[in-house]
Automatic annotation (TrEMBL):
The lineage of its organism: Bacteria, Bacillati, Actinomycetota, Actinomycetes, Kitasatosporales. This is VOC family protein. Residues 13-127, 141-256 form the VOC domain. PROSITE patterns: VOC (PS51819).
Length: 259
């Protein structure tokens, strides 16, 4: 395992993942059992909120939606910025929207939640006291983010313009895929799935969590009241399974090939 946040992230780098749910206590039970997370209170600007911890280090955030808010339940990646207000303006000027903020999250930092032109939701994080996910490469930590969208070219230009990514087309002409790089290092990917995009979800970001054993973790998801949407299978990144938690938040379990 490695320390992941001893310094500020490069602008554009994924730095945090957060989930908003209706049942905060039951969601903590699910992820605590699945990933071994423990929980501490976090900033309460948007309501009850906890930070998931491993070995005393911050991994992810889970907040509680107001009872009258029926938003999609989904893991949301946060992308680092040196200035959330400037980034929010750039999102708007390049065809995206800003739904929340920018606003201060106590002394932790400044945040905004936006969506790209295809409707996929993501966060923006300007770090102050809280730098983001502080552990990588071990069971229960975010390992990758992939945007699932209809086609990659238009949305790829949006992220390149707003966050300065170098956009690299996939090697195969059979797959509509892009890799987003910062300083030559891959930080996220974009996959165009055309009409296969779920109508009920639309374009969305997918968070991959590292696990010690994908098959065992997928079995545990079912046991804990979640669903296995795509059973464990061997992929280019390792052994993966697409699953959802009891409230329907979709994520991918992966035991990376190098893990």
């Amino acid at each position: 395992m490695t320390e992941a946040a001893t310094r500020r992230r490069t602008p554009g780098a994924p730095c945090w993942v957060s989930l908003m749910v209706h049942g905060l206590a039951t969601t903590q039970e699910f992820y605590g059992a699945l990933f071994g997370w423990e929980f501490r209170p976090g900033p309460q600007q948007l309501g009850p909120y906890v930070r998931a911890m491993l070995d005393g280090k911050e991994i992810a955030g889970i907040g509680q939606l107001p009872p009258d808010r029926h938003l999609p339940i989904a893991w949301t990646p946060y992308l680092a910025t040196d200035d959330a207000d400037v980034t929010a303006e750039s999102i708007r000027s390049h065809g995206g929207t800003v739904g929340v903020g920018p606003l201060d999250a106590g002394d932790a930092g400044r945040m905004a939640i936006g969506s790209d032109p295809s409707g996929a939701v993501f966060g923006v994080w300007q770090a102050a006291g809280h730098l983001g996910t502080a552990l990588a490469g071990t069971h229960g930590t975010p390992v990758w983010n992939e945007l699932m969208t209809r086609e990659t070219s238009t949305v790829g230009k949006f992220y390149a313009a707003v966050f300065g990514y170098e956009v690299e087309p996939g090697a195969s002409a059979d797959f509509d895929q892009l890799t987003l790089r910062l300083d030559g290092r891959p930080v996220a990917s974009v996959r165009g799935v055309g009409q296969a995009l779920p109508r009920d979800r639309g374009a969305h970001w997918m968070t991959y969590f590292e696990v010690a054993d994908t098959d065992e973790s997928a079995r545990l998801v079912r046991e804990l009241g979640g669903q296995v949407l795509r059973p464990p299978h061997d992929a280019a990144t390792g052994r993966a399974a697409a699953v959802s938690d009891p409230e329907g938040a979709v994520f991918t379990l992966v035991t990376t090939a190098a893990g």
